[in-house]
Amino acid sequence: MSMQNNLDALYRQVIMDHYKNPRNRGEIMNDALTINMNNPSCGDKIQLHMKVDNGVVSDAKFTGEGCSISLSSASMMTEAVRGKSVEEALELSGIFSDMVQGEDYDDEKYELGDIEALQGVTKFPARIKCATLAWKAMEKGLDPENVD
Prior knowledge:
Blueprint: H1 3-20, E1 33-39, E2 44-53, E3 56-65, H2 68-81, H3 86-100, H4 125-141
Antiparallel strand pairs: 1-2, 2-3
């Protein structure tokens, strides 16, 4: 088996692990931002819950239904943005967007970890919307109008 095939298999395992054992699945009560997003082309639905304190994403959880790509991406995203400043979270979202669209991205500023497993989505343009759904919800929620 080639090195690329091994890497693809590992990435599939990471995606399936986040899909079958999602991190941060649930709701946040008490003054949390709640953002609902859906992908009408495939039926994926995400409800993102975030708590932002003093410009930092102190908590992030999600509920929803959809394919393995959208739900695993939501799991990875909630892990990645927790503890980041609003600016860092938005910057990370831009890096993620560049990565899944096959563009050059800065992978030196942030440790992407499991998120890199989704870079193969670039080979399947119809799945990019699935991968970015939770990230778009996060961007919408962190819009300055919504954050203290």
